[in-house]
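Re: your question from the hallway

Yes, I did run it. Sequences:
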Amino acid sequence: TLGLPSIWRAKVERTFIAIKPDGVQRGLSGEILQRFERRGFKLVGLKLIKVSEELAEKHYAEHRERPFFKGLVEFITSSPVVAAVIEGKGVVATARAMIGPTNPLNAPLGTIRGDYGIDIGRNIIHGSDSPESAEREIALWFTPEELLDWQATIAGWIYE
Ligand code: IDP
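Structure:
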């Protein structure tokens, strides 16, 4: 295994991200995916989908009782979403940090929400908030066949 970065052998972390209808409509999909790629994270799943009401309600199940739930489901099902799974060391927490706080007005410049958003109901992107959420959301949005196990040949220039 000489020369093989350990990340090729280690079990690495995955997280789920979704560029919401506002991000896709505003033409930010490529730019947002590029931020994760440039950081060194690897795409292992990617698709453009029209979210069903059933998927939206399952995805946001923890918010079922909140006053904004109905509007949130209407919004997320209103127009295509880019769903992605990205992989890499520490990706769950790092993707959240790159995305920024829920309310874009409180999000620092340099975060996705801080650079592109204003209103909380138009905050451009979703990212799993814990490894447990990531596992649940990946299984909800992707079939196993849609997730590719592949080795990025640049891994040795990202991981020591
Ligand atoms: P997160 O997306 O930063 O993890 P959560 O608290 O899990 O934030 O909320 C999920 C989503 O619900 C938010 O991204 C946002 O789109 C929406 N949301 C949360 N709070 C409000 C609100 O007070 N008004 C409208 N939409 C909200």
